[in-house]
Structure formats: C-alpha cells, structure tokens
Write a structure and sequence with these properties.
By secondary structure, the chain is of the alpha+beta class. It has helices spanning 2-27, 50-53, 57-68, 87-96, 127-141, 143-148, 150-169, 176-193, 203-218, 224-227, 239-263, 274-280, 292-305, 308-323, 325-339, 354-366, 399-402, 453-470; strands spanning 71-76, 79-84, 174-175, 376-377, 382-384, 387-389, 394-397, 471-474, 499-504. Bound molecules: protoporphyrin IX containing FE.
C-alpha cells in the first residue's frame, strides 16, 4: 500500500516536472521571427490562391504583384510559395538568400522522369548535384569544353540548312520548331553519348522523337497532386501514370544508348567522351559517387533542357522578324556584310555581328523560355527583404515580368533590338547576368542558374544568324498575320507553331 502511494507520488511529481519543462520551453521559446510573411492574396480554404494563378501563372503573378508588391507570398494548395516579381526581389533571393534557396521542391509529376530526383535539374543541392554540375562545366558546357565540340554544332547546323533547302525545292513550308528540336537533340546526343539520336538509329530515331516530345509536353501539365501531396496517390488526372509510362519508354532508349556506349568504351581509349570522363571521375569531394542512374538521368536532362529551351527562343525570334521584316532585312544586311554570299555563317562570325546579338537578346527578354525559372525550395527559415520566409517554401522568380518591367525597360512590349546596341537604354544588361543588376535573367542567376547558359546563348545566336543569312522567309499566302500567342505552361512556346516558306538567298556554292 505504502509502495503504491510512493509510486503514484513519484509519477505525479514527474508529470508536474514534465508539464513545467514543456511550459517553460514554450514561454521562453525563441520566436521564429518577428517579421511578417510577405503580403499576398489570402485565397480560399483548401485551394489557397490556386484559382488566381491559372495556366498563365507568370502574367497573373505580375498582375497580383501590382497590388501586393514585388515580393509576394501565397498558398498554392498545401504549399507556401513566394514569388519574386522584380529585379530587386530577384536579387534578394538569388544573391542574398541563394544558399538557403538552392534546393528544388519534390514535384510529384517530375519524380519518375527525374529518376526520383537523381538528375541534375530536380535534385536538391547535394554533393552529387554539385559534382555533376562541375563535370558538366569542365567537360561539356564550360567555355573550354564548348570550343572542343564546335565541329559537331557546325555539322548539325549544316544538315539543318540542307534539310530546309530541300523543303524549298519540294515547295514545302518549314516546320521550324520540330526541326530545331531534332537538330539540337542530335548535337547534344553526339557530344553526350557519342551518337545522333534522330537519324542514325533508324527506327529508333522516331521513337526517340515521340518520347522526347511526350516528355516535354507532359512536364508542362497542371497536376492536382503536385499541390495536394496527400491525395497525389489517387492520380486524379492520370498524369502521374502517363509520366511513368513516358519515363519507362525514354529510359529504355537511354539505357540502350548507355549500354552501347559502355560496349564501345575500348574504341575511345585515349580520346574519352563526356560520359567516359564522368564515369572515370565519378567521386565527389565528400566521397559520394555519381552512379549509373545519375548518368542516365543526366543524359535525359541534357536531351530535354538542352533542346526545347533554345528551340523556343529561336522560333520566337524568327516570328518577331517575320512580323517586323525591317529587322530581318537588317540582320541579313549585317550578316552579308560580314560573311558574304559564298559561305554559310560560322560561329566565329558572331562577335562581329552586334545587331544579330541585339536581336537575340531582345527575343530572350520578351520570350524567356522558362518564364518562372524552375522552382527553388528552402530547407531552413530565413529572412529576405524584411520578411520572414519559413523553411519548406517554394520560390518562383518571374523572369517574364522582370524582362517587361516598365521601370527598367522603355516601351517594354515593343520588339526593339536597338535598345541593346551601344548607346541604347538596355546596352548595359547582359542576359548571362554579368552586369549584376538582375534586370535581365533569362537563364536565372546564382548557384542554381542554367548550367548550359553559354551553349544556350550560342545555339540561339548561331541558329538565328544562320537561318536569317541563308534564307529569305515568307509566311504562306493568307497567313501573313502571325499569331503571337504563347502556349501556357512551364515553357512558353508559340501556341501556333511557325510554318513559313524559306528561299535560299546565297550563292549555290554556299550550300554545298
Ligand atoms: C536559350 C536557352 C536556354 C534558356 C533560356 C535556359 C534557361 C534556364 C533556366 C531559367 C533554368 C533554371 C534556373 C533556376 O532555376 O535558377 C535552367 C536550368 C538548367 N539548364 Fe538551361 N536554358 C537554356 C539552355 C540550356 C542548354 C542548352 C542546356 C544544356 C545543354 C541547359 C541545361 C540546364 C540545366 C542542366 C539546368 C538545371 C541546373 C540546376 O538545377 O542546377 N540549358 N535553364
């Protein structure tokens, strides 16, 4: 009896102690922050502000920012998001809070296609991610590596010119976007896995084209499960099942390329290609290794991120030039003065073509192919621009709105390349971000910025210059009014793909 009394006495004491401890921890807890969350629309229960965002999220965010300011927070389904809508807000996140926001959210639709986030694009900022970026920069996408595969770009762009010339002979219009995707996938395939993916693999080539386009369009769909992870397992729209099937088809092809590549390793002894170099240097500083799955995921990244982004920008540039023929004529006059009529344009001509460069910059300003960049994600609480940003917040940077900000760009909706020429009001802005202003960041900025920005810029300038120099372009009769609507989604391609007639304008010897 006495023992039971002592037991309950001790138990009661322990309970009082526990409650006191918990209470004192609660009373003396460090407040997460005295700062407020950034302002934003309150939204409605469950959905949050999802219904305000719609398909054209970039333009709706820009509209909302007029009421709430350049740093805005809103709940999209279960997720807290912040949106940076002007250059100073972009700087605050991508420079000041770059390390905190260097991760990516776990986007349910992207899980399978990103090999469960073992790729470069959707991985968190892990040591493996860092090492993969380093390998890409050293052996593929950095300045020195880029120079090494100039012959591949030249050969593939010449094939494109030849294919367009043949369409002219057949009296057919040019399905430009599809042809650009094929060209760039072949360039990337050749340097990444040592083979063209569209032609030389026979039947395989067509399968690759279909699956690549399914992958590109599938990733842009709005999936309810991405905003409500607790019901994602239901896959209400069937998008996850579709993405899994696309991934399986794509991976089967990438595996074959990879296996073939491994089988032929001996034949490259002494002159290793990109994948050989990654496999041979697969260990990062902290000892984690790039696995075979990482490499397959990286190949997939390069074939997707490296093709549609540049193709979107080139298609828009040509559409803008067809809409403003005086601009096309000026590019042709400039390229003709520098290159002449007896050969095709070479990469080495580009530094001597300032107007062409200005046209490409203007296209990147008005038509950035990733208008909200890719989402970033924070793993810790932080304070940005005088606001409290709790951990696990998604960050979207509205590159589209930043490029059209009337406080920075005079007459922002006009396609006016002159603004980038010396003496122009935009002359100081560099799309690669070297000016440090954050006013023109089509490739993003900071440690998560585009890993292929040098090559992306080169693809755009080289392709636009070649297409304008080698051909006169004309819309089919009755279609002279070019539709300039963008297709809503993650990337912003033309809603109606450009189909124009091309007529060779150089001496026949130039096309041989
Ligand atoms: C005009 C062409 C291009 C544009 C406008 C563009 C734009 C972008 C943007 C905005 C991002 C996201 C940046 C961020 O989230 O902070 C990105 C990421 C990326 N881009 Fe590009 N890109 C282009 C071409 C390329 C090319 C040609 C390649 C490779 C061959 C490439 C590879 C990548 C990769 C691997 C990432 C992910 C980087 C990471 O998460 O660490 N891009 N790109």
């Amino acid at each position: 009896m006495a023992a039971a009394c002592i037991d309950s006495y001790l138990l009661g004491g322990a309970a009082v102690l526990l409650v006191t401890l918990l209470l004192s921890r609660w009373i003396f807890r460090k407040p997460r922050s005295r700062l407020p969350l950034p302002p934003g629309p309150r939204g409605v229960p469950v959905l949050g502000a999802l219904h305000l965002v719609g398909e054209s999220a970039h333009s709706n965010f820009a509209r909302l920012a007029a009421s709430y300011g350049p740093i805005m927070s809103l709940r999209l389904g279960s997720h807290l998001c912040v949106v940076a809508n002007d250059a100073s807000a972009a700087r605050a996140f991508l420079k000041t809070a770059d390390a905190q926001f260097a991760h990516r959210p776990d986007h349910i639709s992207a899980r399978d296609v990103s090999y469960q986030r073992q790729n470069l694009v959707m991985s968190d900022a892990t040591p493996t991610w860092k090492h993969m970026r380093k390998m890409c920069s050293l052996h593929l996408l950095g300045g020195k590596a880029l120079a090494d595969w100039a012959p591949t770009r030249r050969a593939e762009f010449r094939r494109l010119v030849e294919a367009i010339r043949r369409l002219h002979e057949d009296g057919e219009p040019v399905p430009l976007f599809d042809m650009l995707i094929c060209t760039l996938a072949n360039v990337v395939g050749t340097i990444a896995v040592g083979g063209r993916v569209f032609d030389d693999y026979g039947d395989e080539s067509n399968k690759f084209k279909d699956v690549l386009s399914d992958l590109l369009t599938g990733g842009a769909q709005f999936n309810v499960g991405d905003f409500f992870p607790s019901i994602a397992w239901m896959d209400l729209q069937g998008i996850q099942a579709k993405m899994l099937s696309v991934h399986k088809r794509f991976d089967a092809l990438v595996r074959r390329l990879f296996d073939e590549h491994q089988r032929t390793r001996e034949s490259r002894r002494g002159s290793p290609d990109f994948i050989d170099k990654v496999m041979a240097n697969n260990e990062s500083e902290d000892g984690t290794a790039i696995s075979e799955v990482n490499v397959r995921a990286l190949i997939s990244d390069l074939l997707t991120a490296g093709t549609d982004t540049s193709s979107v920008v080139v298609e828009w540039t040509l559409a803008e030039m067809l809409k403003n023929p005086a601009i096309l004529r000026r590019v042709q006059a400039e390229t003709e003065a520098v290159v002449g009529r007896d050969r095709l344009l070479e990469e080495s001509d580009i530094p001597n073509l300032p107007y062409l460069q200005a046209v490409c910059k203007e296209a990147l300003r008005l038509h950035p192919s990733t208008p909200l960049m890719l989402p970033h994600f924070s793993h810790e609480d932080c304070e940005v621009g005088g606001f409290f940003i709790p951990k696990h917040t998604r960050l979207l940077v509205n590159v589209w709105a930043i490029g059209r900000d009337p406080a920075v760009w005079e007459n922002p909706l006009a396609f006016d390349p002159d603004r980038f020429l010396p003496g122009g009001k935009g002359a100081q802005y560099d799309p690669l971000g070297s000016d440090g202003s954050f006013a023109f960041i089509p490739f993003g900025a900071g440690r998560r910025s585009c890993a292929g920005k040098l090559v992306g810029m080169l693809f755009v300038q080289y392709l636009v210059g070649t297409l304008a120099h080698a051909f006169d372009w004309e819309m089919p009769e009755g279609e002279e009014e070019i539709d300039m609507e963008a297709k809503p989604g993650l990337a912003l391609p033309k809603a109606v793909p450009l189909k124009a007639f091309a007529r060779p304008r150089l001496s026949p010897a130039a096309y041989v």
